[in-house]
Amino acid sequence: MLQPMFFRGVFFLLTxxxxxxxxxxxxxxxxxxxxxxxxxxxxxxxxxxxxxxxTYYYERLIGTKIFNDKTYFEFEQEWKEGQKDYLFLRxxxxxxxxxxxxxxxxxxxxxxxxxxxxxxxxxxxxxEYKLKSDKQKLKTPYCEYKDLMVIEAKYKNNIFExxxxxxxxxxxxxxxxxxxxxxxPEI
Length: 187
Hints:
It contains one helix and twelve strands, in the order αββββββββββββ. The protein is mainly β.
């Protein structure tokens, strides 16, 4: 079995998160509801709480940073134990990019023009991504979601599926078919 630190590292690298909670919900929109025309990967999220295996973290939009003359939204991920990780994302021409500090370059995280079964590789070459579907369902302890986009991420011998809902963004993940992560209705 892999160590918890490994999972935290993989999640940090794989999160196609940046969803919402109460700050990004529109008036009248419930916690378990997306938007019919919303983006699967909104970058205007202020804060959210995410369960990841046996722990959790808060993800907060804390500002912007410039790398290679490009401006990225900076998200802080503060874990239950107090450790902090940072995620740098930007959008251009309907494509969301993540700046990879390891390689001082960016990786495509998501694109509205990416078609089902399209595949791409992270800039480090460690992760292979594939857009699986936009009609999936996911049951979490809080909600039963439908019409979700799913991005599969392969890392060594593990297969992760990351689930996104229009207007909410990231809502959960499975590893090898088992639920390992989900958003929580509190911030």
